[in-house]
Amino acid sequence: MSAAAAAELAARQAYGRLVAILAARTRDVAAAEDALSEAFHAALRRWPETGMPENPVAWLLTAARRQHGHAHRHIQVRAAAEPTLRLLLEEAPETADIPDRRLQLLMVCAHPAIALEAQAPLMLQTVLGLDAARIAACFLTSPAAMSQRLVRAKARIRDAGIGFELPGAAELPARLDSVMNAIYAAFGTGWADLLADGAGGTGLVEEAIWLARLLVALLPGAPEPKGLLALMLYAAARRGARRDAAGRFVPLSAQDPQAWSRAFIAEAEALLRDAARAALPGRFQIEAAIQSVHVEARITGADRAAALLALYDLLARLSPTAGVLVARAAAIADAGHAQAALRELDGLAGELAGYQPWWATRAHVLGLLGEAEAAREARRRAAGLAEDPAVRAWLLGAQDHAGPRNQA
Amino acid sequence: MQYALIFAEPATEFQKRNDPAAAPAYWGAWTGYIGAMRAAGVMTGGHGLEPPILATTLRLRDGQRHVQDGPYADSKEQLGGFVAIEVPDLDTALEWASRSPAAAVGSVEIRPILLAPADA
């Protein structure tokens, strides 16, 4: 790791911790960020040259204190930051042995009183310190619109009085779900960009994984965050294998397992095993388990269709979303029940007529049933709905028997 | 933080107030709820309101008084009362709101109370 990257990593770890501490008392996230921003700029300038300080949080506090001294002489520092800077002096002990309240901060960001579309951007800014322009690029909006969304959300935290206490036992599971959903939504957005440009994407995938890792570290006893992280790692592990040298889409069944990231898969497997010990299955754990079985089946060549169907049955009970129900229909077909799969798909026809995976899965099932012409037609419809040009090309070129399965 | 909990009830709830069969349960639920807020020491004020049929709405337009029979907005749920509470944060206010009889049949709006700068 370069000195600059090490400095950024340390600054990022410290950033969310300091924002969480400062905002907990005042609920004023914007003022906390203002108070810290100069110190962080100084850190990112200095650390790569001088090397990392032994205690980055303490260094930043000292820098922020010095900034506070300047603030008396330079009135241009926002008046609102002033009480926060004073708080910094009172709250932070010299040793900087401060508690980690980033879990509280994550839960504030995912509070139901915060607009859904603001939750993940808010996490990226307050916990990781990303600037609005970078976040806007990740979510394909203008920097001005994203800034406004973030400013509004922070004003709401302060003015509606959203507390920085951890919710009680009754509320905690729902709030944790919101945190995980926001992280996964960010991951999904980043993934869609990867599909669209086929190149590096916006980096949002990595940021979402970072947040999931943080959540696992903050809640080591909770199984679902481990499931979430494992799910994201399985997807990321296969990232490079989704395209061939010519940029063409390669479905999971044709991917070269040698091209998968062994490190990511090993980490995901370990997380999933660890999570399973709690015996509290949840949506993310099951989705990760499905990925695990796919990976295992590809590597060993074993037929795991029955195991996959059992997992999809469980998932459909917990989380009957369109994507899950369509994927379950494909699993039914792959377990040797193509006719039953077609009936399942027919049952979903009304709501999902504009849903690309429904048509692609339908094409797959019709192909298995030997209805070549109907399969071709369904595949053309799927291709028309596909946003990823490589997937579209693959659908149009696929053989009748080839599946649309597991496009991730 | 000080919040107003603003209770909106559907017509069926207002009808219960004078229905011999339903009134005891209706009033019992509200009395119990208000009593719990008082006992916890969070309630700083508030009132129940007579039904919207007794409301009169006034607007001044170009110096003209327009007086209308009925509430300011015609909607399925109508203002039935409000309380002011003092609690640490929004989640605590949400917790109190969720215990109100209006939450399950109507809705509760939670709004921070606007404080004069000297009070803030």
Give a quick set of tags describing it.
heterodimer, A: 408 residues, mainly alpha, 4 domains, elongated, B: 120 residues, Alpha-Beta Plaits, 4-stranded antiparallel β-sheet, 4 helices, 36% strand, flat
Question: Could you provide a short overview of the structure?
Answer:
The complex is a heterodimer of chains A (408) and B (120). By secondary structure, chain A is mainly alpha-helical. Chain A has helices spanning 3-26, 29-50, 56-73, 81-91, 102-109, 116-126, 132-138, 143-159, 172-197, 204-218, 223-237, 262-276, 283-300, 305-318, 322-334, 338-352, 356-368, 372-385, 389-397.
Provide the CATH topology of chain B: Alpha-Beta Plaits
Name the biggest interface.
A-B, 12 and 9 residues
Question: What's the CATH class label of chain B?
Answer: Alpha Beta
Proportion of residues in extended strands of chain B = 35-45%
Distance between the termini of chain A: 30 Å
List the total number of helices of chain A.
19
H/E series of chain B, N to C? EHHEEEEHHE
Widest sheet of chain B: strand order? 2-5-1-6
> How many structural domains are formed by the residues of chain A?
4
- Mean pLDDT of chain A, nearest integer? 86
Q: Which consecutive residue ranges of chain A, at least 5 long each, have pLDDT under 50?
A: 71-77, 400-408
Considering DSSP H and I runs of 4 or more, what fraction of the residues of chain A is helical? 55-70%
Provide the succession of SSEs of chain A.
HHHHHHHHHHHHHHHHHHH
Structure in words:
The complex is a heterodimer of chains A (408) and B (120). With 408 residues, chain A is mainly alpha-helical. Chain A has four domains: 1-99; 101-219, no CATH class; 221-302, no CATH class; 333-408, no CATH class. Helix content of chain A is 70%, strand content 0%. In chain A, helix 11 (223-237) runs parallel beside helix 13 (283-300), helix 13 runs antiparallel to helix 14 and helix 15 (322-334) runs parallel beside helix 17. The radius of gyration of chain A is 24 Å and the shape is elongated. Chain B is of the alpha+beta class and 120 residues long. In chain B, the strands form two sheets. In chain B, strands 2-5-1-6 form a four-stranded antiparallel beta sheet. A two-stranded antiparallel ribbon of chain B has the order 3-4. Chain B has helices spanning 11-16, 23-40, 90-98, 101-105; strands at residues 2-10, 43-48, 56-61, 64-69, 77-86, 107-112. The mean pLDDT of chain B is 94. Chain A binds chain B through residues 27, 111, 113, 159-165, 167, 171, and chain B through 1, 3, 88-93, 112.
